[in-house]
Specification:
Helix content: over 70%
Shape: flat
Number of strands: 0
Distance between the termini: 48 Å
Number of helices: 6
Structural class: mainly alpha
Oligomer: single chain
Strand content: under 5%
Length: 143
């Protein structure tokens, strides 16, 4: 009769052997994009370290807070457009209408979106809809 400990040890040994087989096969078939990915990572890291980060720090140092907030508002206002389209595709008519209203009010009265006038008109910003959420509504799987 087989002892429970021997059975558990045998199963553990079998799993370890199988996992070693899987890892060994992965090493024989490396990522075909590995060289490109490593070169691109090095390029992006160098660009970030020596150009983008100093420019961003300089921008933050010389730009007044009210102007930073205004620029952020402009980009948020532009973000209402894809959110509206995705709201329509998801069948969220109320959310799409609210996003459209925010975009129109902030683009006109808010001087191109510099000021968030819509929040004072009871059109608060909601969670932005994106295409991934739209795919999920239509049954698309994760990934």
């Amino acid at each position: 009769m087989l002892n429970r400990h021997k059975l558990g040890g045998s199963l553990l040994l079998l799993v370890m052997c199988f996992s070693e087989f899987v890892y060994a096969n992965d090493e024989k078939d490396p990522d075909p994009w590995q060289g490109y990915n490593r070169a691109m990572f090095k390029f992006n890291d160098t660009l970030d370290r020596w150009f983008l980060k100093p420019v961003a720090k300089g921008y933050r140092a010389v730009t007044p807070n009210f102007l930073e907030r205004g620029i952020s508002n402009v980009f948020s206002n532009i973000g209402e457009v894809p959110s509206t389209l995705n709201g329509v595709l998801q069948g969220n008519v109320k959310g799409a209408a609210q996003d459209t209203g925010r975009f129109l009010v902030n683009s006109t009265l808010g001087i191109g979106g510099l000021f968030d006038v819509a929040k004072h008109m009871k059109l608060p910003a909601d969670d932005h809809e994106d295409f991934g959420q739209t795919l999920a509504v239509w049954g698309g799987g994760a990934g």
